[in-house]
Amino acid sequence: MNIHKIFQKLIISNVILLILAIGIAFFYTPGNYINEFNDKYYAMWANDEGMLFLLLIYIIVVALHLISYYMLYKFKKNGKRIFIITLIVVNLFELFSGAYASSSVEMVLSTTSYLIGGAMLALLYFSPVGKKFNKFP
Questions:
Q1: What is the extent of the structural domain holding 81?
Q2: Is 137 a member of any domain?
Q3: DSSP states of 6-61 as a string?
């Protein structure tokens, strides 16, 4: 199979995982102990007035990350740069957001998404896929 097609299928699968994660976050109700933990510890920083600005930045970064998926799918040169920058920023937000309890379904989806993101990074820098981004349209 063509490595470029594999790369595009990884992008599609990561977008599908993101849609599933958002759907599960809205419709799946985890155990009561998870909600109690999140209400007690995680909601403390989310209720701070200064965090609204950071939440807005996070939403913009996630939107740019989705745009980078499209640009990567079309092999646009700037998509590679935007993907790397937004991936770093999203991971930094997650690192400094504090403790958060999640269900096993959320953990499986996020871990699979991280694995696919790592495979995409490996293909971007250590395979012929990365060379395709250097070509002019």
A1: 3-132
A2: no
A3: HHHHHHHHHHHHHHHHHHHHHH----HHHHHHIIIIIHHHHTSTTHHHHHHHHHHH
Q: Is residue 82 part of a domain?
A: yes
Give pLDDT, residue 18: 87
Confidence of residue 30 (pLDDT cuts 50, 70, 90): low
pLDDT tens digits, one per residue of 89-118: 998 988 877 666 677 788 888 899 999 999
* The total number of residues written for the chain in this structure: 137
- Residue 87's pLDDT is 92
Question: Which tokens sit at 112?
Answer: 């699979």
CB-count exposure of residue 52 (10 Å: 0-12, 13-18, 19+): exposed
Plot region of 2 (φ>0 → left; ψ -120 to 50 → alpha; else → beta): beta
| Residue 62 · residue 91 · CB < 8 Å | no
